[in-house]
Amino acid sequence: MGGMRALSLFLIPGLIAAADPLPAERRATAPGGGMVQLRLVFRKGIQIESAQLPKAFRAQGAAKAGWLAFDDLSKEGKRWALQVFWPEDEWREEEVRHWVKWADLESPWLLAAMFTGHGQNYNLLESANPKNPEKVVAGDLWRIPKNLLSVEFGGTAKGILDRSQPEDDLNDEERVAAYRKLLSFGQDGSGAYAAYRLRKGEALYSSIVMRYTDRVDPREVNQLALLIAARSGIEDVRSIHPGTLIRIPVEHLADPFQPEGSQALKEEREVREEVRRTPRVGAGPRLKGLRIVLDAGHGGVDIGASSNGVWESDFVYDIAMRVRRILEQDTEAIVSMTIRYPGIGFKVRDVLSTPTRSAEILTTPPFANDGESPSAVSVNLRWVLANDLLASFKKTGDAKKTLFISLHADSLHPSARGVMVYVAGAANVPATYALGAARGARVAEMKRSSRVSFTAKERLQGEARSRLFAEALLTAFKAEKVPIHANRPIRNVIHRSGKSFVPAVIRHCAASTKVLIEVANLANEEDAENLKSHAFRERYAEALVKGIRAHFRQ
Ligand SMILES: [Zn+2]
To answer: What is the DSSP string of 364-390?
Structure first.
């Protein structure tokens, strides 16, 4: 199965460049006589010095000096560069036969990017070479059949293959219903299961586990994929044919996919009904009377997830700063932050070169951030502070016009990408909760707001309003071409280490509408590249504000 790549690729924090293998370098004479420098760089692929390159080798608009990326080359230029690095490859009529030469620098992703036109096709390339190990080995033969070879090289592959699904354009409820229709239920010697026929281009990892269960942790998703493969009688998970019947044990299914008659499905339907009954709260185009608390996850001692040269804390903090700036400039919403980086303040930064080492939760007095583990104090102080700010607002303001947004980024399997929005599932929010002094800190807000309680109705309405808001956000992201998670981008629970839970920061938050946004998957190379660009972070922040305005428009 394509989704099962070496875990090491994304579990090792990819921050430190020192451990990266050195590039392979070449000098070659281009047609016309210019001596051209080329290099093959870890994770980045082929780069070429532009100055001596024949014009016909550059793509339209490519720079005439400096290092060009592979995608900045014309098809003739790409073909030439591949020839320089891999002169032994055989370009046959029906396939390209590629021999791995630099095992440290090559990967199925890189081969897919160069030969098929897109790295995301790596799982198809793996399926076409089922005997090859997940980590490339020097001397191994990788075959790129004509149907996977990019049209630029005479193949028939165009862009990302088999990625879009008919469900992609539906709203959340319809999409989940469409996924449910693809299941049938049965029973065998090992118990009850839901059966699914794998469609073309789908992988166990993404199309089964990520979609039909509440697991997102890459290691746990892998484990469950293996368990499901074994249950389905699949011997080689790396080459599963379309049409193969997959059996998912019912105990692993997420609520919307539980069998008819189950309590979980009943609750799921109650929430959907509540969503349909829930009126939107209007604050007008300038968001007058809307109280917003913005939280940027992690910070200071805790950089959060990291991969591909990006780390969670500063990148989500910068997006939060941009959201804050746009809201303050363009709206009348009252905005507060839960966290501040003392050396930076609320400044927007275009360049994020190293993790910022100090951050404080804006309680009275401020509390130095001590992380986001369940035992950390600051993770709880975030909702304590938010509830305190909201309580003083509610004395004169409209309680329905309260919004809490927590920004994070996750580290999923590298094939997954895009935004995922968590809402607090009503079933996983306790009716009352009091934060004990041992897990709190000596701050004024603890005395006033360390206890929280919700009626059953409040929990249901909270989930419904937050789902409506999440839908508005995703619509705005889609319109602004911000990538969205392919399966179920709105989720109300996480399953990890045998437990189902809602992140504490939204679980105990008293805002009427509250979401935790995983802005991108840092382990996905394209998501990481996007985040590195300040222009993308700005576009992201603009889309987020558009989503807020669309939702609270009268
Ligand atoms: Zn996080």
So the answer is: SS-EE----STT-SHHHHHHHHHHHHH
Whether the full predicted model's pTM is greater than 0.90, yes or no, is: no
Sequence-ordered list of residues with C-beta below 8 angstroms from that of 535, at least 6 positions apart, any chain:
none
- CA 370 / ligand 1 centre spacing (Å): 13
Q: What residue type is assigned to position 114 of the chain? A: M
CA distance 379 to 508: 11
Assign domain 279-552 one CATH number from 3.30.1020.10, 3.90.1150.10, 3.40.50.460, 3.40.630.40. 3.40.630.40
From ligand 1's centre to the CA of 75, what distance in Å? 41
In the chain, CATH 3.40.630.40 sits at 279-552
- Contact of 471 with 513, CB cutoff 8 Å: no
pLDDT tens digit sequence for 415-429: 889 999 999 999 999
Six-digit token pair at 331? 């709206």
**pLDDT tens digits for range 46-97:** 999 999 999 999 988 888 889 999 988 999 999 999 999 999 999 999 999 9
Q: How far is the CA of 501 from the centre of ligand 1 (A)?
A: 15
